[in-house]
Design goal:
This protein has 4 helices and 6 strands; from the N terminus they run βαββαβαββα. It has 167 residues and is of the alpha+beta class. It has one domain: Cytidine Deaminase, domain 2 (3-Layer(aba) Sandwich). The longest helix is centred in the first third of the chain and has 15 residues. The protein is globular.
């Protein structure tokens, strides 16, 4: 037996003001997207903004539905919109934030497992890291260098390749 350890590292900033201008702009776009979220059931409004290598910023927000499994998270709305419009582009970074009408969110939120898996596939296909910027509506901001840090042991297209023939 061999133990395998994964250590996740993130940079923590006290506020958005400490970020570089590009990261601030991306996080502000995510905050604007969150304001437009359709979240009448949870009142937990999430916004995501993806910076593509062509300079475009594509946003998305969560879309809830009375039949709960029919909704979609902000991250997947943004990534699917980005790559349906720019299929040859690669994502350089994604910013994710949340607001609520009911309470303050003063710590960074992270993507759910399904969104991590989708983001991991786009990062894998691009062959380059996608920076992840996480925040709440105020407070600290986390920056993570890549999706793999958020989802070690992700399932990617290489898992579908045939390596041996069955007899």
């Amino acid at each position: 037996m061999k133990e395998i350890k994964f250590i996740s590292t993130a940079l923590e900033y006290n506020s958005i003001d400490e970020l570089d201008k590009t990261s601030q702009s991306l996080l502000n776009a995510a905050k604007e997207a969150a304001l437009k979220a359709y979240a009448p059931y949870s009142n937990f409004k999430v916004g995501a903004a993806i910076l593509l290598d062509n300079g475009e910023i594509i946003t998305g927000n969560n879309q809830e539905n009375a039949a709960y499994p029919s909704g979609l998270c902000a991250e997947r709305v943004a990534v699917f919109a980005a790559f349906s419009k720019y299929p040859e582009a690669t994502a350089k970074a994604i910013a994710i934030t949340a607001i609520s009408d009911n309470y303050k969110i003063n710590s960074p939120i992270t993507p759910c497992g399904a969104c991590r898996q989708v983001l991991a596939e786009y990062e894998y296909n691009a062959g380059t890291d996608m920076k992840v910027i996480l925040s709440g509506d105020s407070g600290k901001v986390l920056i993570i260098n890549n999706i793999n840090t958020l989802l070690p042991f992700s399932f990617d297209p290489s898992n579908l390749k045939k390596t041996t023939k069955k007899k």
